[in-house]
Amino acid sequence: MVSHSKFTPWVELYRPKSVKDIIGQPEVVIRLSEYAKTYNMPHLLFAGPAGTGKTTAAISLARDIYGEDYKHNILELNASDERGIDTVRGKIKDFARAAPVTGAPFKIIFLDEADALTPEAQQALRRTMEMYSSSTRFILSCNWSGKIIEPIQSRCALFRFKPLTKEEVKTALDRIAKAEGLTVEGKACDALIETSEGDMRKAINTLQSASLTSKKITEDTVYKIVSMAKPIEVSKMVDQALAGKFMDARKMLDELLIDHGISGQDILLAVHKDIIGRDKLSMRDKVRLVDRIGEYEFRMVEGASERIQLEALLAYLAVSGKDSDLK
Questions:
Q1: Which residue, among 183, 180, 209, has the nearest Cα to 5 in the 3D structure?
Q2: CB distance 161 to 54 below 8 Å
Q3: What is the fold of 231-326?
Q4: Can you tell me the distance from the alpha carbon of 161 to that of 24, in angstroms, rounded to the nearest whole number?
Q5: What do you get for the CA distance between the two ends of the chain, in Å?
Q6: Backbone φ and ψ of 282, nearest 5°
Q7: In the chain, at which end, N or C, are there fewer CB atoms within 10 A of the end residue's CB?
Q8: Which letter, b or e, does each residue of 135-156 get, where b requires 16 or more Cβ atoms within 10 Å of its Cβ?
Q9: Is 279 exposed, middle or buried (0-12, 13-18, 19+ CB in 10 A)?
C-alpha cells in the first residue's frame, strides 16, 4: 500500500486541524481559541511574513467553529489572482448575502494576500464588510498591513504573526521526520532552519524534497535542494578576499556560480550575513562593508552583471583587507 503522503504536499498533510495545535504564535492561539469557543468574533486582519501560519490559522478557526463541514461556510480567495473590483462585487458579495449553512452563526470569507487588492476593490470591500456584518465575517491575510486602507483596518481585529523561532521549526520538523520515517542529521536540521528563516512552509517543503533522494537527510542534500551556498563556503571566500588573495576568492566564487548554480543575489545575501556575523570586525568596519554591499546589490537589481559586481565586491574586500582590523 502506497503512503498517502507520497502524493500530498506535507504542508497540507501536516496542517494543524485546530487552532490549539498551531505551532508558535501563543497570543494568536489564545485569542482565536476564545472566538471559536464563544462563536463570536469580529472581522480579522492577519499580518506577517510568509509561512508563519496565517492561512493555517484561518482554516483551523473555521474547523473549530463549523466542524468538518467547514467548507460549506467559508469562501477562500487569493486576492493576488482575483484582485479587481469585479471580484468584490461578484463572488464576495454573492457569498456574503447568502444565509449561513447548517445553522452556523455566520459565514467566513477568507481573503489571502489581501494587500494585493487594488484601492478601488478595497473601497468596495469596505462597504461589503459593513453591509453584511450580521451574517458574514471577513478574515484578511497580508504580508504588509500598511497596504490595507484605514477604513478596513479600523473594522478588523489585528493579529500580527511573527517568524517562527528555531525551536518551533525544529519541533515541527522532528515530528514530521518521525512520522515519515526519516533520519535528519543535526547539521541538516540546522540547515533547514537556517535556510527557511522562520518560514515553516519553506522548511517543510525542503524536507519533503530532500526525502525523495534518501531517507537520511544530510546538510549537503538540504543546500542542494534550496540552491544556496553553505555558510562555511561563503565564509572561506570572504576570508580569502580579506587576506588579499583575490584570485583564490574569485576561484571560489566561480565554483558557487557555475558548479553549484547559485544565483548572484543569493551569494550577495550570504556575504552580507557573513559580514554581519563576524565578531572580529568592528562596528565601523561592518557599517562600511554593508554600505558597499548595498551599493552592489542595487546595481545588480538594476541589471548590472552579477559576476562583475560580485568580483568588484571581492576586489573591494581585498583592498580593504590591508586594514588590520579586517583581517
A1: 180
A2: yes
A3: Zinc Finger, Delta Prime; domain 3 (1.20.272)
A4: 9
A5: 59
A6: -75, 160
A7: N
A8: ebbbbbbbbebeebeeebeebb
A9: exposed
CATH 1.10.10.10 applies to domain 166-226: no
Identify whether the C-beta of residue 263 lies closer than 8 Å to the C-beta of residue 306. Answer: yes
**Segments in the chain forming alpha helices (H):** 10-13, 26-38, 54-66, 85-87, 93-97, 119-131, 150-155, 166-180, 186-196, 200-211, 219-226, 231-242, 246-254, 264-276, 283-301, 306-320
How large is the average pLDDT for residues 44-60? 91
Q: What is the pLDDT of residue 258?
A: 86
Residues 6+ apart with CB under 8 A from 273: 231, 234
Query: Is residue 86 within 8 Å of 93, Cβ to Cβ?
Result: no
Distance between CA atoms of residues 82 and 79, nearest Å: 5
Residue 74 has pLDDT above 60, yes or no: yes
In this predicted structure, the answer to whether residue 2 has a pLDDT above a threshold of 50 is no
- pLDDT value for 68: 81
Query: 1 falls in which pLDDT band (50, 70, 90)?
Result: very low
CATH of region 4-160:
3.40.50.300
Contact predicate 10/42, CB 8 Å? no
The residues spanned by each domain of the chain are: 4-160, 166-226, 231-326
Q: What are 71's three cell numbers?
A: 467548507
pTM: 0.79
Grid cell of 144 as nine digits: 504588509
Closest CA to 100 of 137, 128, 126, 68: 137
DSSP character at residue 327: -
| Residue 98: per-residue pLDDT | 78
Phi and psi torsions of 295, nearest 5°: -65, -45
Provide the pLDDT for residue 70.
Answer: 85
pLDDT at residue 275 is higher than 80: yes
Task: Give the burial class of 272: count Cβ atoms within 10 A of its Cβ; 0-12 exposed, 13-18 middle, 19 or more buried.
Answer: middle
